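Lab notebook, bench 4. Still working through the backlog of constructs that have no structural model yet. Next entry is a single chain of 354 residues. Request: give me the structure tokens for it.
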Amino acid sequence: MVTSSRKKPITPGNIYDAFVKRMFGRVLVFVDFLVHYADPGFVAEMNLKKIKPAPTHYIGKTGDERIADLIFQCPLKNGSGTLMAIIVFEHQSGNLKEIPQKLHRYISAIWDAEKKEGRKILSAPYFIVLRTGKKPLRGALPRMSDVLPKGRDGKPLGHVPEMKYDVFDLPAWDFDKLVGGPVLRLALGILKKMIEESGEEFSEAMLPLLEMSDAEQKIELTKELLQFAAKAFAVHNRRLDTEMVSKALVPIFKDEEQNMIKSIFDEKYDEGFAVGIAEGEARGEVRGEARGEVRGEIKKGREMLLKILHARFPKIPKNVENTIRKMTDPVALDSWAEHALSCRSMNEFTEALK
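Model written out:
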């Protein structure tokens, strides 16, 4: 067997995908996004307090879809079933022509998994495309019929299975139009700055931090956001320099901004390190010091999840604890921690974990 030594190219999408998965993988952020941006008719039917991440096997056996595509189970208020809310991240500036086929693959995989589970009522899909092209999308959304044969009258032949979906176009959003809680507006604002050519208004994207009263959470979130932004700037041969960051942090941290800058712009976060991390994330691996940081983050996520469960319930089944200790996705750990805080019983958590 001949193997290629050619490395997978680093693309801005690798960073954007990882950022969206990291931020929107938080259940509370996803719910906030639904409430403020999604179809209000669908949201009115959902039991928002019971939304949880969908089991990973719903994505399909190969797992080769986009890493940022997120799926959440949204139980309905009337108890008749579940709406499966799926956010598909599209960072390119194209016309979304591949989206209809991707949505068909998704819902087919979900329904196949549900049928194997013995479900008689399958989940209804609700597709959301978060697009970050440089220009707003114009014209009609792509459909399956666009790529199928047409009859002499120009109409598509066969029974065309169309999938409806909503598109949220990030370039069209100004900072003063962003709504929702501070974490959601931070995520959208920073994502907007990550894809733009200049660093202007970067400080404006950080202003929702002023609304956060938890000092420790504010510091950790600031570091997380700026490290992602630095990586995205690096793959564009740009730098998120100290002057730009200082301007953003002065109104938020007052006299502490220099300590924040020093902790963020340590030598390990220079441009070479940022590109190396981007490449590692693109291949699903990281090396050296970065690998140690990721392992540390995963370990902390596991410990936090177990700590929440032990605080809420008198006994944690051994198989549940073993499953948690084998988890390697920090985003999933964050989401399950939030679910652990909201679930009503250990059985409910255990069922969701399957």
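Notes after review: The radius of gyration is 21 Å. The first helix runs from residue 12 to 24. Flag for follow-up if needed.
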